[in-house]
Amino acid sequence: MGFFDKIKAGLSKTRSQLSERTNEILNIFKSVDESVFEELEEVLIMSDVGFDASSEIIERLRQKAHQEKIKDSSLLLPALKEIVADIMTEGVDGELELKTSPAVILVIGVNGVGKTTSIAKMANLFKSQGKSVILAAADTFRAAAIDQLQVWADRVGVDLIKQQEGSDPASVVYDAIAAAKARKKDVLICDTAGRLHNKKNLMDELAKINKIIDRELPEAQKECLLVLDATTGQNAVSQAKNFSQVADISGIILTKLDGTAKGGIVIAIKNEQDIPVRFVGVGEGADDLQPFDAKQFADVLFE
Ligand SMILES: Nc1nc2c(ncn2[C@@H]2O[C@H](COP(=O)(O)OP(=O)(O)OP(=O)(O)O)[C@@H](O)[C@H]2O)c(=O)[nH]1
Ligand SMILES: [Mg+2]
Which residues lie with the beta carbon below 6 Å from any ligand 1 atom? Predict the structure, then answer.
């Protein structure tokens, strides 16, 4: 299955909410007037697109309908798709590309959003693209976290650098960088703990890890990917806001799109934070991570 089919299957709940309601409205309100815009805006808000993004989309739709003299509401659908695709792609430079060897990816996010699973999936994806991968178990908060990553590393067939539970995460990253250099790996992916009790702790820990990376690999491409759980809806949007205050986030991995009708938050996140969604998780298996394609996503949502 390609991106289109996987995303389509994964997004079935979101799509049935969003596209069915949209089509219903376009069938009921045949002519283009204010009531159709109001109804459409409500559908977007109900699908977790978020208040701001929804009004932005509908405002652009109003203008487009006016400029292009769209009278028949059935012609609003392609216009709507185009607007959503535009919003999703504005300022985004396409897929995440690994430009240096090694490149370093730091994966952050709150408890249980899918960090460790997404790391395994990314490792699997990069490996399938012919890149060599090494992982760092820098979530040292509990032994189970290290064991979980080891199980995934074995399953996917990549190296893992780890220390004991409770050890310094920055020290694990240091070891992993040394191993990445010695073993000539293309990409190092670091797991981190979701359990840092407050902003200060989190900031300090990330600063320490970043300092090690900058010192040991000053030329390397550095990505900091924030993992968000789509099923948490607007809460994920506020996590994106909070994390961007403490970390220099370069992209988002949006997980669990398969189990939710809240896929619309992809649009809210892009609109409010202007951080590109890089990958989406559509299941629990190693293959269930897809590079995010905004235009196809917009097409699938309203198909
Ligand atoms: N359905 C579905 N489940 C997912 C997806 N991604 C992760 N999960 C599940 O979410 C649960 C938590 O995933 P983890 O990867 O352990 O999350 P984490 O962020 O590392 O959690 P902590 O280390 O405890 O903070 C697991 O049961 C995963 O299988 C996804 O895209 N779809
Ligand atoms: Mg984890």
Answer: 109, 111-117, 139, 145, 194, 255-256, 258-259, 281-284, 288
